[in-house]
Specification:
It catalyses: shikimate + ATP = 3-phosphoshikimate + ADP + H(+). Substrate binds at residues 38, 68, 92, 151. The chain has 8 helices and 5 strands; from the N terminus they run E-H-E-H-H-E-H-E-H-H-H-E-H. The chain is α/β, with parallel strands linked by helices. It has a domain at 9-37 and 84-183: Rossmann fold, CATH 3.40.50. Residues 15-16, 19-20, 38, 55-56, 59, 91-93, 131, 133 line the site of shikimate-3-phosphate.
């Protein structure tokens, strides 16, 4: 039988470090609910506007500031829920979102920073198609690096655990290692 998760976990890091994938696998391992702020945002958008849109189209529709405000409202609504242990994957921009109160994020759970080498994450981004906030740049990789450098201090400030990802490996294998480290760190 799997060990019990004693605290909610909060996964964050740069785009395509694997927050959603590893978050879901970790939640499945512990038998707890998985929440993804991008999926929550999509549900809220559909509820309010009646039409289903993927996150990247919501970003396009609302523009950068509108998106960050909507994202902050979504995160604060999630933080206000009376939830037990669960795994929450944040969108890549949440920790640096100026409309999100740092205290709200700090109270949301044990912070797991997935510190991937940016070239690995960018290769995944490139394969899946550039998001709107990178597509307009002549050198999207340079912009990706610049953006991540700017966000790094925010990521570090919420990290109770920093998990380095240095190479491509099957997500299931990465999740297995990560779960063991989380268990060690959460032991009283
Ligand atoms: N360990 C991994 N190995 C290979 N591909 C991965 C791995 N983790 C995630 N991916 C792929 O990278 C992309 C982004 O993963 P995702 O979990 O959505 O990242 P994030 O939520 O951090 O943006 C997806 O296409 C996913 O299938
Ligand atoms: O880095 C960002 O600013 C964003 C990352 C995305 O989430 P993932 O990091 O899960 O891809 C999503 O929230 C949105 O497109 C903005
Ligand atoms: Mg994600």
């Amino acid at each position: 039988m799997a060990e019990r998760l004693t605290r909610p976990l909060l996964f964050f890091g740069i785009k395509h470090c694997g927050k959603s994938t590893l978050g879901r696998l970790t939640a499945e391992h512990f038998g707890v609910k998985f929440v993804d702020t991008d999926l929550e945002l999509e549900s809220r958008f559909q509820m309010l506007n009646g039409c289903p849109l993927p996150t990247r189209d919501i970003f396009r529709e609302l523009g950068e500031e509108g998106f960050r405000r909507f994202e902050a409202e979504t995160v604060e609504a999630l933080a206000a829920q009376q939830a037990g242990p669960r795994v929450v994957a944040l969108g890549g921009g949440v920790p640096a979102n100026p409309f999100v109160e740092p205290e709200v994020l700090k109270k949301m759970g044990f912070g797991v920073y997935l510190a991937i080498r940016p070239e690995i994450a960018f290769e995944r981004v490139r394969r899946r198609g550039l998001p709107p906030f990178l597509a307009s740049f002549a050198d999207p990789y340079a912009e990706f690096l610049r953006m991540n450098r700017q966000r790094e201090a925010a990521y570090r400030s919420y990290a109770d655990l920093t998990f380095p990802i240095e190479r491509e490996e099957a997500a299931s294998a990465v999740a297995e290692k990560l779960i063991q480290i989380i268990l060690t760190e959460l032991k009283p």
